Amino acid sequence: MLFFVMLGKASNIQNYGRPKRFCVHSLPPMTKGHVVTDVFAVPDSFPRPSPISTLPGSVTKFVVEQYEGKFYPAGGTPPQLHADWCYCEDLAQQFKEASLDTKAGKRAHMREADILDLYLLRLLETNWGTPAQMRWVIQRAASLLGWQAPPNSLLEPEN
């Protein structure tokens, strides 16, 4: 449930238009022994949504969502963040395989970071996620491959 918060008051609104993403590559939750400690565990390196949203009007407002009695930036509840991470982790696994095929094939002459940089440019054009998430995907693919991440993936996205 989304809330607009202004001057200490919260009002409910419907969450229309947010794309639903399904976790197709979910790693098991972080565990100690056999006790689940966090079902929605996400690596610290995964980008979080910005806590500031701009809404029109003369009164300063920000958008938050309530989950289990706590308020989070819009799109940043633990289940939403986990779903986004699953989606991006699956993309990283796919890019890992594609990068290996590319390096062994038609782009054998290119440096590994350049191959990943080409993929990053294409990813940023797809709008499959935020620019920060797409940079994380390429950094994760580089990590999985043991390759150096391209410099463009380390830059902060422009807002």
Description:
- This protein is α+β, with helices and mostly antiparallel strands and 159 residues long.
- The chain has helices at residues 78-104, 112-126, 131-145; strands at residues 2-6, 9-13, 30-32, 35-38, 62-67, 70-73.
- Helix content is 36%, strand content 17%.
- The protein has a 4-stranded antiparallel beta sheet, with no helix packed on it.
- Helix 1 (78-104) crosses helix 2 (112-126).
- It is elongated, with a radius of gyration of 19 Å.
- The model is unreliable at 1-37 (pLDDT under 50).
The structural class is alpha+beta
- Uncertain residue ranges: 1-37
The ordered H/E elements are: EEEEEEHHH
* Rg (C-alpha, Å): 19 Å
- Percent helix among the residues? 25-40%
Q: Major sheet, described briefly?
A: 4 strands, antiparallel
Strand order of the largest sheet: 2-1-5-6
Count the helices. How many? Answer: 3
Quote the beta fraction. Answer: 15-25%
End-to-end span in angstroms? 25 Å
Overall average pLDDT: 75
Question: What is the tally of beta strands?
Answer: 6
Shape annotation: elongated
Name some characteristics of this structure.
single chain; 159 residues; alpha+beta; 4-stranded antiparallel sheet; two-stranded antiparallel ribbon; 3 helices; 36% helix; disordered N terminus
